[in-house]
Amino acid sequence: MPYYLGIDGGGTKTTCAVGDEARVLAAATAGPSNIVRVGEAQARESLHQAVHQACAASGITPGLVVRTCIGGSGAARPELAAIVRGILAEILPVPIDVVGDMEIALEAAFDDSPGVIVIAGTGSIAYGRDKAGKTLRVGGWGFEIGDEGSAHWIGRAAVSAVLRASDRDGDKVAPSALAKALCKAWGVSSLSDLARAANSIPSPDFAALFRVVITSEDELAREVLSKAGRELAEIAGVVIHRLFGADDHAFVPVAMTGGVFRHAAPVREAFYNQLQTLAPRARVMSQVADPVEGALRLARKGAGKVT
């Protein structure tokens, strides 16, 4: 029996799924494997760990895998793809397909059908495919200049929000619950220290603050999360208008994926409401797509096994 491997290699975690021709047999999760963010050594450790654990849980050895597909942010760039393929080839047989994270996410949500997928994880991007097979991506320009609505953006926006609130209120108002939580997360004792940490070089891990924001029962936190949802709706709306604009009467299916959507209900709600205003034809799927399912499906298709 042939076995296939699908891998979703992200900036926060790596998920590996093992399947046969029809089923997912087991999955495992390890640390981050985005080479740009964590480097080759950390990527190798995470990828090897995820593969070994998933194969062990499936009761097979990595040598029995007939085809692997991995998707990750920026992974489709030839120079990075070669590195990722080489890392996996140390423990897996070839062929090993390396594609972008948006490709496995679109596959997970829609198979071969048209639609728009919006990814909001450590970074963010919107990607769509029309019924003729034409594709379009919007956003995903990186943490310093884009990735609106992502975990990184949310962490940075939260720090900015509490500092602006301090400027506005001065010493008359005690620091908000969000401000206190952010200071605690970074181990600083004042907003001045928080600002210095935020402006340090290299830049701090703003994405690590996402959990602080979503667990804070604070108006500032809710405002940041709502703004994130609206920003994500903006890039989805651009894809819909540019890719499906000529088909005025057709509904456009839209799917969400990534940890921000999965764990932050205020983001999902704001995304849905804003997108209905920007693109009334959008039909947002309620279930958050799992990209590793798309990677596994592409591995099967690569071997001529369409399920």
SSE blueprint:
Elements: E1 3-9, E2 14-19, E3 24-30, H1 35-58, E4 65-72, H2 78-89, E5 96-100, H3 101-110, E6 115-120, E7 124-129, E8 135-138, H4 151-169, H5 177-186, H6 191-198, H7 210-214, H8 219-244, E9 252-257, H9 259-263, H10 265-278, E10 282-284, H11 291-302
Parallel strand pairs: 1-4, 4-5, 6-9, 9-10
Antiparallel strand pairs: 1-2, 2-3, 6-7, 7-8
Helix pairs in contact: 1-2, 3-11, 4-6, 4-8, 5-6, 8-10
Unreliable segments of 5+ consecutive residues? none
Number of domains: 3
By CATH, the topology of the largest domain is Nucleotidyltransferase, domain 5
Mean pLDDT: 89
CATH homologous superfamily placement of the largest domain: ATPase, nucleotide binding domain
Q: Which value, in Å, is the CA radius of gyration?
A: 20 Å
Strand order of the largest sheet: 3-2-1-4-5
Alpha-carbon distance between the termini?
Answer: 15 Å
Concise summary:
This protein has 307 residues and is of the alpha/beta class. The protein is 47% helix and 19% strand. Strand 1 (3-9) and strand 2 (14-19) form a beta hairpin.
